Structure to design on (234 residues):
């Protein structure tokens, strides 16, 4: 009798197991993410097989290795697809979707470049199941110093530059036209003064000479001519 009861129990358990479809989860994520910004989004996809639609999940992001102590951020979410926020080693925001959850890391820098693993757990309804992705290599490019663009030239600036150029050109033309006239007048004035002095000296009884002292001509009687007494000239 006892053996018959054990056989019936085993048969019921076997039929129950055969009736329950296999439940499993598969998590996948991109192999690498190369970005130049400080906000990086990691999309964790999950595929669940089962007889009932899952309603409550938990996502955990690990750095370097998917083990305890390496958690970056972790939070629970449901099928309502509402944005959720989580804070851990990094400030993260999550956006659920059908079959995936996108985790955005806020304020990452070059030193945060590393391997990141995504773990998704199905909490409800039972049975519990989970899986961890193969990891994503996230590389943050170093900051590039952007050159400042030159300020745009306004219409007022163009007008001022145009007027300045016109006045400058006008000054050059006037100077060019008046320079020969001024130089000629100066030369004629000097020549007239010298001629007048020479004429005055030549009109005197003593011979005259003109000497250039580096700045102007000087005229006067010659010093090397001996004066002869009047009345001796033939």
């Amino acid at each position: 009798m006892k053996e018959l009861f054990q056989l019936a129990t085993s048969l019921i358990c076997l039929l129950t197991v055969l009736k329950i479809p296999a439940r499993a989860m598969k998590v996948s994520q991109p192999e690498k993410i190369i970005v130049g910004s400080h906000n990086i989004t990691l999309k964790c996809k999950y595929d669940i097989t089962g007889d009932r639609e899952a309603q409550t999940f938990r996502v955990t992001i690990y750095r370097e290795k998917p083990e305890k102590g390496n958690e970056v951020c972790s939070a629970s979410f449901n099928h309502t697809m509402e944005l959720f926020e989580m804070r851990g080693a990094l400030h993260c925001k999550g956006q659920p979707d059908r079959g995936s959850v996108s985790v955005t890391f806020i304020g990452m820098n070059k030193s945060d470049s590393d391997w990141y693993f995504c773990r998704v757990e199905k909490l409800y309804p039972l049975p519990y199941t989970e899986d961890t992705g193969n990891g994503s290599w996230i590389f943050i490019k170093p900051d590039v110093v952007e050159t400042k663009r030159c300020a745009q030239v306004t219409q007022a600036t163009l007008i001022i530059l145009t007027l300045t150029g016109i006045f400058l050109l006008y000054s050059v033309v006037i100077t060019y036209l008046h320079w020969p006239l001024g130089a000629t007048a100066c030369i004629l004035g000097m020549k007239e003064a010298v001629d007048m002095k020479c004429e005055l000296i030549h009109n005197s009884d003593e011979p005259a000479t003109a000497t250039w002292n580096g700045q102007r001509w000087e005229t006067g009687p010659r010093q090397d001519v001996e004066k002869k007494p009047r009345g001796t000239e033939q």
In short: Residues 13-22 have pLDDT under 50 and may be disordered. Residues 155-221 form one domain. The chain has two domains: 21-140, 155-221.
